[in-house]
From TrEMBL, chain A:
Signal found in the keyword field: yes
Signal peptide: 1-31
Keywords linked to the UniProt accession: Signal
Organism: Arthrobacter terricola
Protein name in the entry: FMN-binding domain-containing protein
Automatic annotation (TrEMBL), chain B:
InterPro entries found in the cross-reference section: ApbE, ApbE-like_sf
GO molecular function terms noted in the UniProt entry: metal ion binding; transferase activity
Organism ancestry: Bacteria, Bacillati, Actinomycetota, Actinomycetes, Micrococcales
EC number(s) from the headed UniProt entry: 2.7.1.180
Cofactor entry: Mg(2+)
Reaction(s) the record says it catalyses: L-threonyl-[protein] + FAD = FMN-L-threonyl-[protein] + AMP + H(+)
Top-level taxon in the UniProt lineage: Bacteria
UniProt-listed Pfam families: ApbE
SUPFAM superfamilies: ApbE-like
Protein name in the entry: FAD:protein FMN transferase
Keywords of this entry: FAD, Flavoprotein, Magnesium, Metal-binding, Transferase
Top EC category: transferase
Species: Arthrobacter terricola
Length: 142, 290
């Protein structure tokens, strides 16, 4: 039970896209139909409205890095999300800048329990830091 | 858990988090079996343990005998070493230690970059037997996590469990009838996904430049006229019958053109480049959000 909020973010991010030629996506078809409660990963709300932020640390082959996560919650939904990665590695920073466009605009209004994905494949190192940050936010928002 | 009513068994192993999902809870005997499989693998191959079998090759040259699965690693690494012109090598370990990523996690470079020794000069690898003509640090990391996913899956099958998901923090194997929807994590923002793939009876593995920054330097190539990285791969995903192949190929895609790999391997791939465009093979069509 460590990642439900993160999962919701990932689904909320359904319409998000990379900068460049994969950009301009519409967040339509991905609204989740699976009820998390049914699959056993119930989100125990309600969450207080507000803006929350937390940092999570993770270790990568580049060394220690920090992910800053700021969430705005309203009506048990994420209305805004902002990710800051305080990467020491100049290459990481470079890439961060190129991929960061449009994060907040496209996750608006996705309900925490509208989740249709239960697994994530990607960089396991960064997700550890993100999960830590989200856990802090969840405890703050109770 | 991936499906309603399923049970998860989670543990830490080889430096990552594991989640084994099954329709019924695993018995304590099966849990112990899985933990033993993971521990055996770690004791054989860990770069971070002085008591690992491969550690003996680093202290002084000589010979070691590895578990049966070493023959699969040899075959895979040998092929990818050839296809990548030596860029993808299990002998990168010494270079990593030089850069500070050794067993002590010093994170302080010991000196300048050290090229990996050539396989044909330093290493004789024949199935389970490896001997080295000089002290070498063997790093099978490019395929090791995948192989361990396969070994855990084999253990589950041997225990009479036909349907399951083995997830080693994003590298995973699915067995069963009902497909598993898996988000493809954004290369630089773990709160986002760039697509969703339906996985069924296959392995899915990922590799990202932020984990491979030390691997080959390719993604650090900048265009001098713009100062921007161009056409460099920042993230890859692969699907194959086995996780060992999917894992190794996800790394290989950073160094080898997909069509070259396709001549030797049956797999699906997706590559995302630093300028944001993506390319993919059959098997990944329709997975990216649009």
């Amino acid at each position: 039970m460590t990642t439900p909020l993160r999962k919701s973010l990932l689904v909320g991010a359904a319409g998000l896209s990379l900068a460049g030629s994969v950009a301009g996506c519409a967040p339509t078809a991905q609204a989740g139909s699976t009820d998390l409660a049914k699959s056993g990963s119930t989100i125990t709300g309600p969450y207080k409205d507000g803006t929350y932020s937390a940092d999570g640390d993770y270790f990568s082959p580049n060394g220690g890095e920090t992910v800053g996560v700021q969430l705005t919650l309203s009506g048990n939904a994420i209305s805004a999300v902002d990710i800051t990665v305080h990467a020491d590695n100049p290459n990481t920073q470079k890439y961060q800048g190129e991929f960061k466009d449009g994060i907040a605009a496209q996750v608006v209004g996705k309900k925490l329990d509208e989740i249709n994905v239960t697994k994530v494949a990607g960089s396991s190192l960064t997700s550890g830091g993100f999960n830590k940050a989200v856990e802090k936010i969840k405890s703050e928002a109770k | 858990m991936p499906y309603a009513g399923w049970s998860d068994f989670s543990f830490d192993g080889i430096g990552t988090r594991w989640e084994i999902s099954t329709p019924e809870p695993l018995t304590s005997a099966v849990r112990q079996l899985l933990l033993d499989v993971v521990e055996d693998y770690d004791r054989s191959y860990s770069r971070f343990r002085n008591d690992a079998v491969i550690a003996r090759l680093g202290q002084d040259a000589g010979s070691i005998t590895l578990p049966v699965g070493a023959a699969d690693l040899e075959r895979l690494f040998r092929t990818l070493y050839r296809l990548s012109g030596g860029a993808m090598t299990p002998l990168i370990g010494k270079s990593l230690e030089q850069l500070g990523y050794g067993a002590d996690y010093a994170l302080r470079p010991l000196g300048g970059p050290l090229p990996a020794p050539r396989w044909e000069d330093a290493l004789r690898w024949d199935g389970r037997e490896i001997s080295a003509s000089e002290p070498v640090v063997l790093d099978i990391g490019a395929a090791g996590k995948g192989q361990l996913v396969d070994l855990v899956a084999e253990a589950l099958l041997s225990a009479g469990i036909p349907g399951f998901v083995v997830d080693a923090s994003g590298d995973m194997l699915h067995r069963g009838v009902q497909p598993l929807r898996v988000a493809l994590e954004h290369p630089y923002d773990p709160s986002r996904a760039i697509g969703v793939v339906e996985l069924r009876d296959r392995a899915l593995c990922a590799s990202a430049a932020n984990r491979r920054a030390w691997g080959d330097g390719l993604h650090h190539v900048l265009d001098g006229s713009t100062g921007r990285p161009v056409e460099t791969v920042v993230a890859t995903w692969t699907m194959a019958a086995t996780a060992i192949e999917a894992d190794a190929l996800a790394t290989a895609l950073f160094m080898v053109e997909p069509d070259v790999l396709e001549d030797e391997f049956d797999f699906s791939w997706l590559k995302v480049y630093s300028d944001g465009h993506a390319a993919f093979s059959a098997g990944f069509e329709g997975t990216l959000f649009s």
